[in-house]
Structures
1.
Amino acid sequence: MTKENAQAYWGENLRIIITYMAIWFVVSFGCGVLFVDALDQIQFFGFPLGFWFAQQGSIFVFVALIWAYVSSMNKLDEKYDVHE
Amino acid sequence: MSLDALTFLFVGGSFALYIGIAIWARAGSTKEFYVAGGGVPPVANGMATAADWMSAASFISLAGIVSFIGRDASAYLMGWTGGYVLLAMLLAPYLRKFGKFTVPDFIGDRYYSNTARTIAVICTIIISFTYVAGQMRGVGIVFSRYLHVDINTGVIIGMAIVFFYAVLGGMKGITYTQVAQYCVLILAFMVPAIFLSVQVTGHFLPQTALGATLESGQSVLATLDALSVELGFAQYTAGSKTTVDLFFMTAALMCGTAGLPHVIVRFFTVPRVKDARISAGWALIFIAILYTSVPGVAGFGRVNLIQTVNGTAETAASGVANTGVKYEDIPEWFARWENTGLIKWEDKNNDGVVFYSKTDANELTVNRDIMVLANPEIAQLPAWVIALVAAGAVAAALSTAAGLLLVISTSISHDLMKKTINPNITDKQELLYARGAAVVAILVAGYFGVNPPGFVAQVVALAFGLAACSVFPAILMGIFSKRMNTQGAVAGMVVGIVSTMAYIVYFKFMGGTKDEMWFGISPEGFGTVGMILNFVVAKVVSSMTAEPPAEIQQIVEDIRIPRGAGAAQSH
C-alpha cells in the first residue's frame, strides 16, 4: 500500500468517525442533557421526549451507530483493499 | 416445589454448567490464558463482553437507582452504554491490530517507556480491585437471602467457583463461561420484567410499557409523577441535578467505560480487526436488551412499592388511596426483606399503619438494591421466577468478578514480571505466575467481600474517574496522534490522575461540601475534567519535547490499517 493511499484511507476513516460521533453527541449530550427540558414539552408515546431520549432513545441510537460504522468501515476497507 | 428447593436447583444447576465449561476449555498456553488463543467468534465475544460488563451493579443496583432518583439516573443509562460507541470507533479495532495481550502492553510499547507501563499497571490494578470487592459482596448478599447461609459463607462459595474456572481456564475458560452466564442473567432479568410489564400495563415489552396508558387513563410515567409529588418526592421525570453536572457525569461514565481494562481486553480475543468492530456491535445489543428494560422495571417497581405500602382506595387503612396500609395487611415479602435489613419500618405515630413519603411522616427506609431482588415477590410472581433471579444475580456478579481477576493476574504476571522485572522467564513460568496471581487476587477479593470497606459505593466514582482520566486518553492519543511521545503521555496521565484523585478524595472522604464543588461538578463527573487536563498537558509537553522515534511512528501507521492483524503476539 502506498503512502498516499494509506493517508487517503485514514482521512476517510476519520471523516466516518467524526460523522458518527457527531450523531452520538447530539442524541446523548444534546437530546438527553442539554435540551432535555425543551424536548420534555413534547409527548412521545406517553413519554416526555427528552426523558425518553435520556433513558432509552439514546441507547437505541448507539446500537444503530455501531452497526452503521461496521458497515461503512467494511466498505472502506474493501475500497482501499486493506480488508482481511 | 418450595422456593428454597427451586433456588438450590437453579443456582446449583448454573454452577454445574460453569464448571463443566471450565473443564472443557482448559488453557494450555499463556496465549490461551490471556486472550483465549485469539480465536473467539464475534457473537460469542459480544455475549462474553456483555456478561463481563454487566455486574451486580447493573443487574441488582441500576434499576433501583433509576427507581429512586428518576431522571437524574439518565447519566448511568447513557454513560454505561454510550461508552461502547467510543470503544467501537476509537479504541477496539486499533488495539486489536496492535495485537498484544493487555492495556499496559499497549501503553508501555506505544510510549516506549516502562514508566508509562507501570502507571498503566497501577491504574489497572486499582480499577479492577475497586470493582471486584463489590462483586464478591453481591454474591454474598444473594446467597444469604435465597440460600439462608450467612453472607461470609456465600462469599466463600463464590470464591471457590471463580477460583475453579478463572485459575484453570484463564481467558478461554472465562470467555465460554461468560457466554453461559450472559444467557442466565438476561433470562433472569427479562422474565420478571415481562411479567411485571404485562401485569401493570398489559403490554408485553418493558421498553414501551412505561409510556402505556393505565385504566385511569394516564400513562405509567404520569401516574408515577403524580404519586411522587403527592408524597413530597421530586417529580419522577424531572431532574434535580444541574445540566453541567449531568453533562460531566455522563461524559466521565462514558469515557470511563471505554477505558476499563477488563472490557478492552475482551477485544484482543477475536481473530480479525473487523471482528473487533462487529463484536462491539453485538456487545451493545446484548447490553441494550437489559439497559432499555431497566427504566420500565424501575418505574413499575416504584408504582408497586408505593401502592403496596401506602395503599389504593381498597387497601389503605383509612379507605383513602396513598395514606398507608395496616402492617398486618402488607404481604409476606415485606417481613422477609425486613429480616435482611434492606427494609426498615419504624412506627413513629404508633398507629400500626405503614406510611412512605418524603416528609417527616415517613416511617419506611428502603434500600435501593431491593427493587430488582424483591420486585418478583412484590408483584407476586411464581416461585421459579424468584429462583431464576437469584441465579441471574449470581451469574452477573461472578462473570464480572472473573473478568476482573483475570486482568489483575495478567497485569502482575505479564506486565510486571515478564515485561518489567524478569524478561527471561519461560512461557510455562509466566503461566504459573499468572495462576498464582489469580489465586492471590481471589483471596484479596474474598477478604473485601467478607470485610467490606465502608466505602464500596464511593469508590465506584474512583474506578470510572481513574479510567476516564488516565487509561482512555493515553490510548486515544496513542492511536490518533503520531506526534505524542513519552514525556507528553506520562505528564498527561500524572496530571489527570492527581487532579481527579484529589477531587474525589476531598469530596468523598474528607467531607467537602456541595457548595465547594467547582461549577457544581460532583466527584462522579470530575473524571471528565481530569481527562481534559490530561489532553491539554500531554499536547503542550509533547510539543516542547522530541518527537517519538521513527519505529514508533511506524507502529502507529501500522495499527491504522486493518490488514495483517495476525494472531496476538507475545513479543
2.
Amino acid sequence: MELLAFARGPALWASLAVLVAGSLWRIAGILRRGSQPDLSEPRGTRLLAGAMRGIFARMIPRREFRRRNKLGVWNGYVYHLGLAVIVFGYLPHIHFVERLTGLAWPPLADPVVYLCVGVTFVSLFIALMERLADPVRRLLSGFDDYFSWFVVVLPLATGMIAIQQPYTPGAASAPPLDPLPLAIHLLSVELLFLWLPFGKLAHAFLVFASRGVTGAALTRKGAAL
Amino acid sequence: MNLPALESARTALDSAKAPDARRAAREFVAQAGRDAAFQLESCVHCGQCADACHFHLVSGDPRHTPIYKLQPMLKAYQREAAPFASVKKLLGLAPPEVTAEELHEWSGLIYDSCNLCGRCTLVCPMGIDIAGLVRLAREGMAAGGFAPADLYKAAERALDTGSPIGVRWPALKRQIELQEEETGLKVPIDAEGAEYMVVLTSIEIMGFSEAIGALARIFRQAGASWTIPSAGFEATNVGVQMGSREVAATLLSRIVDAAERLKVKTVISPECGHAYSALRWEGPNLLGRRYGFEVVQISELLDRFVREGRLRLRGKDTRRLTFHDPCQLVRRGGLTEAPRRLAGAVSANLVDMPGSGAASFCCGGGGGVSAIHRAEALRFAAFEKKKQQIEATGAEALITACGNCRNVLEEAIEHYGMTMPVLGLTEMVAQYLEPAQPIDTERRAG
C-alpha cells in the first residue's frame, strides 16, 4: 500500500478511533469518580447559567489581572485563533472534513490562511521560548507539555511543505504530483489525533468541564467568577 | 456532645503523629472526586496563577506558584486513579509514589505559603479552583501527618477545650460580664427560642471583646432576640484550616448541637472569614446533613437590618477610611456587597483600594497561616502586596469584617512601622447607632 493511501485510509481511521475512544475513556474515567451532593443552602440557584458564564468569562482575563499579563498570555490568543483559522478556513482542510462528514463551508482566501500559518508558527515558537525561559513555566513543564507542543507544530510544519504542491479544488482524493509531502502531513495530523486524548491537548475538551464546574460552584455561593 | 465524632477526630490526630506518605496519598486520591479530577486534569501549565499569588509576587520563588503546590496530590491521583493510570502503571509510565521527604517539603508550600484566598482561582484561564484543590490536598497532608505541628496542637486544644487557644466558657463569661457593665445591657446566655444565636471566635473573645457589647447594642435597637450559647460558642474551626474533616466536623457539630438545643432560627457567623466558610458552606457537607436553621454572617445581618430600617444610624466617621475584603467572606464566600455597603453607611470618606472587592489581596494570615509560627516571616513578607494596596488609598484607618484579618493586619502594620488603626465593622456600626430611644430601653433583647 502506498504511503498516501495508508495515511488517507487505515491510519486516518485508526487515529480517529483512538481520538474518539481515548477522549470518551478519559471523560468517563473522570465522571466515574462520582461526587457528593452539596448540602449547603445555595445563595444562587442558576447553576447551569453559572457554568456557562464560567466557560465564557474565563476566555478573557479579569480587568484586575490584565496589567500583569505577560506576552505569553496574549500570545496564547494568537496561536489558538491562528490554528482555528488554518484548520477551519483553508480549502483543502474543508474538503478533508467534507469527505469525512459531508459538512462544508466557504473557505478563506489562501493568502489570509498563509499569513495565519506564518504568524501561528512564530507564535508557537514564542510559546516554547517562554516555557523554557520563564522559571515558573519551566518548573511546571514536563514531557507532556513539550511533546504536546511538538505534535501541534509538526502538522503546521509538514503542512507548510505540502502547500508547495499544486492543489486542485474538488479533487481532494485525487493523487497529487508528489504524494509524499501530503502523506507526511496527514500522518503528522494523525499523530496529533493519537496523542490528544492522553496529554495536555485534552484541554481542548476538558476546559469546558473545568470552567463549568467552577462557574457553577462560585455561582452557588454568589461569588465573583 | 457528639462522642463518636470526637473519638474519630482524636483517632485521626493520633494516627497523624506517625507521618505516613502512603496514608497521605490514599487521602489525596479519596479527595479527588469528579469535579476535582476534572480540574486536576485540565491544567495547561500556563503559570498565570503565579502572578495572582502574593506569596509568589513577593518571593519570586517559582515553587510558590499555586498550581505547583498541588504536585503531590496530582502525582497520587495520576498514579492511582486517573483514567489511564492502570495502563501507565503497566507500561512503567505512571508517576512515582509520593515520598515522606517530598511531603515534608510541600508542607511549607501547601500551608505556610497558601492562605486559601482564592485569587489564583479567579485568574486561572482553565477555571481551575486551585484554592479549593489546596483545601482538599490539605486533607491528605493532615491525614498523613504532614500538617504543621502548630495546627495539630491547635486542633488538640480545640477538641479538648473547645478553642484552638484554650478559651473556655469562664473566660467568655467574664468578658460578657465586663461588656454588660460597660454597656449596661444584658447579654442573653442560653436563651431558648431566641431568633439569633451568636457564635464568636477566640480572637474576638480575647482581643476584641468590645464586639460583644456592640452586638448587645445592635440587637437592642433592632428589637431582635438573641443569645450566646455557653457550650458551642467557638466559631474558629482549625479542622478546616489544617484539612481534617474529622476535627472540622466535631467542632462544627458543637455549634449545630447548641443551635438545635436552643431552637434558634438563625446562627450568626462572626467577624471571621474561615469560620463563615466552615459554618456556611462546608458545615452541612462535613456533617452529612442540612441544617434546620439559617446561617448568616454578621455583616450580612447588619446590612439587612440597616436596609430594613431596623438599625438607625446617626453620623459617620469622617476620616479617610478603606475597607479590607476578607477573602473567605468576599471572594470565596460571595459577600461582596454587604460589608462594603455597611462600611459606607458609617464612613463619610470611604475609598476603595486598587483591585478591591473580589480581586483584593489577602492580609497574609488566612487559611491557618497566622497560626503557623514558622511561617511568620513569610507572612509579613506577603503583606507587602496588601500594604501597597492600602498605601495607594492614603487612608488614615482600615476597616475589616474579620477578626483574624484584623489581628494579622495589626501585627503587620506594627511590623512595618506603619501607624494605622484597624477597625471592626460591627463595632463601627454600634458606634454610630442612633442613641437609644425610651421605647428601645423597654425592648430589652432576650
